[in-house]
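Human: Not sure, check this?
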Amino acid sequence: MKIPVIKRLVESQTLASLVEAEEALLDEQQPAFEVEGEDEGEQLTHVFAAIFILNHMQDHQSEFKDALREYTKKVRVSIS
């Protein structure tokens, strides 16, 4: 997971385009835009994180850094 990649996705893509990219990656297809990552798994992680962050920013009227902090908390809990 690379934070700069996630930030670029949040700043450059809409929620709808990110959902479409997630579906494309899950179907083992190329998304309509470039998603950086070493493999499809990392690309999917970046897209999923950007979706979570955009939703959190909209739902809680928060900034990127606060939404990112919430996402990383969830990741830490899931791997511990």
About this structure: Residues 3-79 form one domain. The mean pLDDT is 96.
